[in-house]
Every structure is written in C-alpha cells, then in structure tokens.
Specification:
Length: 537
C-alpha cells in the first residue's frame, strides 16, 4: 500500500476509535443496573433516567457539533469529545449520589456526537476509492465497543464474586459497578493521546482560507499532482454550499412537497430503527438474561454472545449492502426482526413462576449477606415466613408474580430481593429466549442498523444534506432516549411478553410504510435517486 494510503488508514483508524468509546460507554451501564438500583434505591423511572442520560446528552450536543467543527476545526472538536469521555468516566465511577451519576452520564452523552464527527473527518481525508470502507470502520468499532463492554462487565463481576484477597483489597466486591464504569478511563486516555498525532482536516483549512496548510496536509494523503485539483474542488464545493443555504431555507426544502417521499422514508426508518427496542436489549442485556433463571454469572456470559453476534452481522451487512441492495436488506431485515421478537414474546408468554424451597433459600442467603448477623437472621426469618404463604402457587406472568411478591414482602424488601427471587422462581425455555434475542441482534445489525446510515448518505440532495442528516439523527436519537427511559417502567407495568410484542408492532408499522415507499438506490447516482424519489410524488 502506498504511503499516503497508509496514512489515511492510520488516521481513519485512530478517529474511528471514537466508535469504540461510544459502544463501550453506552453498554457498560448494562452490568451495573442491579448494583446502582440497590445502592441508590432507584425507582423504574430513576433507573430509566440514569441509563438514558447519554441519549439525552447527544440530543443537546448534535445541534452544536457542526458549529464547533466549523469554528475550531475537526481535530479540536474530536479532542474535546475525548476529554468529555474521560471526564464522564471518572465522574461516573466516583459518583457519590444518584444525580451525580446521571450528570456524569449526560456529560458522556455530549461526546456521543463523536460518531457523526468521525464520519465527517474520515470522509474528508480518505481517498475516494477507500472512503466507503474507512467510514464503515466507525460502525464496526461501535459493535466492538459494545462487545468489549459486556466482556469487561463479565470479568469484573466474576472477580467480584470470587472472594479472592486482592478483590477485597481493591474493593471490587463492594464497588463493583464503579469498577465497571471506570474501566472506560484507560481507553479514553489512550484515544486522546492517539488523536494528538492526527492532522487537521484539509477541507477545514480550505474553509478557513488556509490553502497552504491544506496542501501540506494533503501531501500526506494523496499524490502531489492531485493536490491542486483537490483543493480547487473543495473550494468550489464550499462556495456552492454557502450560497443562500441557511438552516431555515434548508429545512423548508426538507419539509417541502418535492421531498415529501424522501421525508416519509427518512422519518419512518429513523423512528423504526430505534423502535425495534435495540437499545433496550443492548443496555439492559444482563437484566433480561437474569429473568431467565440462569444465574448472574451466566447472564453476563450470554451478554457477551450478544456483543459477538453484533460484530459478525454488522460486518456481513456492510459487506453485502452493495451486492444485495438497500431495499431487500431493510424489508426482509424488518421481517426477520418481527419474527425474532415474536419468538421472545412467545417464550415469556409460556413462562411460569413458582416460589419453591430454592427460592426461599436464595432470598435468605442474599438477606444474610447484605446485613449484620443478628439483624439478618431476624429479617431473613421474617421474610421466609412471609414467602411461605406463596410456596407452590403458580403464576403465569412476571407482572402477576411481582405483584404477589410485593404483597407478601412489602415494596421495599420485594424490590431489594426481586432479582434473586425471580431468578430462582422462573420456569422458562431459556434457550428459546436466547435464540430469539440473538436472532433479533443479528437481524438488526444486518439490516436497519447500518443500512439506515447508507440510505441517509444517498437520499438527500447535496444542498440540504448538512442539515437533513443531523435532523433525522436527532429524530432517531430522541426515539432511542424514549425507548431507554421507558423500558424499566414497561417491564414493571407491561411485562416481558407485552414489551416484545410492543416492539414488534412498531416495527410492523414501519415495515408497511417502507414496503410501499422505499425505492432501491443501489448503483444509482445521487442525481438519479433524487429524480426517482421526486418523480414518485
């Protein structure tokens, strides 16, 4: 590979690591849910707020990301994001209170704009023939980060329960969730250090009328005889994009009649992608798996399989999107998602919940572990007596079972031990649920996950793309926040069966709309796509 291509690959790889930090930061919270719920006595709404805080942060950051990039440069903007990741990780690990934790995670959400900025930077420094592959590295890094988070959570949880002397000395057994969230710190430091070695975007230099600086950077990225023509091309593109293209004017075009079909397609897929419930499954993975009665350690192991499945099928989707086409991947992928969610719903529908001797023993052990000896014996015996009234009674839904437990133990004691009791009482086809969830993860990352961003890069005219893509990114981010925030409450009020059916129903609505509106864009130029979409209106 020629030196300038090697440089482009190195710089792109470094910047794409922001995707890894994004995935890591987003998914580490999944292993901490039981710990922070117990430590801060969280309600479902408070838990949803803590988990979804980054999604709210990115909603605040996105409108300002473009301005910061244009004003201070791509490199400085991405360096700022690395600092935000680092501060967020430190503050999250040391959070003395619930609201401090929420604020720290919100701060991390401001850094989630790294995804759009990474794509912008890579697109501006990559050779045209390598641009697609290099830009896709960010998406691959995201799922690697997700998988890495599940693996880190598993290791820390495994060590924390091992009873080893070094675990006690380091406080892993008493501050498990803090170590989980703090594991992001070294990765953020490494990324910040590597970012110091990348050059500023040559396009930004041209934007700032610093053509000589742009040419100096381009000498690292392309042959000398192509530099002058490239600078002229960038200058012309910037000139065209600044001709009466105010935000209001561009939004008027996006909402206008000629773009009505494009608007319907973009809005539908932006909402449908997150309405699948993907981030509820990814960020509450351990919580879902613990409801299968497979034990805490096994739940962390199953979450690792979620991460690995994400990686494999994301790579497959990106490799096949140009061969199979956008429409088939989207349409059949959504059918696959609906079927997978249906399998999960069916499995929980047939689950049964029975308080047995095993249930009572597990709760008693948890009670004794969490309190002083004298107090624990008295409280444990009291709770055992109250649970005995439910012994042998079969419940057909998790909602009904949780209500019975709260009625027997009281809300405070029931919430404290619900995870342990549920784990020991459920009778369910765990393999069927695991198949359904892994199938859902595979379907999402093979289709609507990455392909939505491919469509966004194609269906909007160049003149409004700078506003259109951030606008619909805000739509999908808002949907993601709503899903994450309401999932704990849905779990409490609807139950797993209804939650999975709800997600399947919203995906079905999106499938129907896209079936009649989505046009294949494979092998079409931007101009041909605009003509086809506007002609249909």
């Amino acid at each position: 590979m020629k030196s300038y291509k090697t440089n482009a690959l190195i710089y792109s790889t470094i910047v794409a690591m922001g995707g890894f930090l994004f995935g890591l930061d987003a998914a580490l919270i999944s292993g901490t849910i039981d710990y922070i719920t117990a430590e801060f006595s969280l309600t479902p709404e408070q838990l949803g707020t803590a988990v979804s805080a980054p999604a709210l942060g990115v909603l605040v950051a996105l409108p300002f990301a473009g301005y910061i990039c244009n004003q201070f440069g791509r490199k400085k903007a991405i360096l700022l994001i690395a600092v935000l990741y680092l501060i967020s990780a430190i503050c999250s690990a040391l959070a003395p209170s619930y609201w401090t934790l929420v604020a720290a995670r919100f701060l991390g959400g401001l850094a989630f704009s790294s995804i759009s900025l990474a794509s912008m930077y890579i697109g501006e420094i990559a050779p045209p023939k390598l641009r697609g592959k290099l830009v896709s590295m960010t998406q691959i890094n995201i799922v690697i980060g997700l998988s890495g988070a599940y693996f880190v959570n598993y290791l820390i949880n495994h060590w924390a329960t091992s009873g080893a002397p070094w675990v006690v000395n380091m406080g892993l057994d008493t501050s498990t969730w803090r170590w989980m969230l703090g594991s992001e710190i070294p990765f953020a430091v490494i990324w910040f250090g590597l970012l110091l070695t990348i050059p500023e975007s040559p396009s930004w230099f041209v934007f700032q009328h610093r053509d000589e600086d742009a040419k100096n950077t381009l000498r690292k990225l392309m042959p000398e005889d192509e530099i002058e023509a490239h600078v002229d091309e960038v200058r012309e593109s910037i000139h065209k994009s600044t001709e009466d293209h105010s935000i209001v004017a561009q939004l008027r075009v996006i909402f206008g009649k000629p773009m009505r079909l494009t608007f319907v397609i973009a809005m539908t897929i932006a909402i449908a992608q997150q309405s699948t419930g993907i981030n509820a499954v990814l960020f509450y993975a351990q919580t879902i798996f613990k409801q299968l009665g497979i034990g805490s350690d096994a739940a962390f192991v199953q979450a690792i399989w979620v991460g690995l499945t994400s990686i494999v099928f994301t790579v497959m989707g990106l490799l096949l999107v140009d061969r199979l086409g956008r429409r088939p991947l989207i349409i059949w992928g959504m059918v696959w998602i609906i079927a997978s969610l249906g399998i999960c719903s069916y499995a929980f529908k047939n689950a049964r919940y029975v308080v047995s001797e095993q249930t009572i023993a597990a709760m008693e052990a948890a009670e004794i572990k969490d309190a002083s000896l004298e107090e624990s014996e008295r409280t444990a015996l009291n709770n055992v007596d109250r649970l005995n009234s439910l012994a042998g009674v079969e419940h057909t839904s998790d909602i009904e079972f949780k209500q019975a437990i709260r009625g027997a133990l009281g809300i405070e004691d029931a919430n404290k031990h619900m995870g342990t009791i549920l784990d020991a009482s459920i009778q369910i086809n765990a393999k069927l649920v695991l198949i359904g969830i892994l199938s859902f993860i595979a379907a999402f990352h093979f289709s609507v996950g990455p392909v939505m961003w491919v469509l966004f890069s194609e269906i909007f005219p160049v003149s409004v793309r700078g506003i259109a893509i951030p606008f619909f990114t805000i739509v999908t981010s808002l949907t993601s926040w709503l899903v994450q925030f309401f999932f704990p409450r849905q779990l409490e009020s609807m139950g797993m069966t209804a939650v999975f059916l709800f997600y399947a129903g919203t995906v079905f609505v999106g499938l129907v709309i896209l079936f009649f509106t989505l046009k294949e864009t494979k092998n079409m130029s931007i101009e041909e796509i605009q003509t086809a979409l506007q002609a249909k209106t």
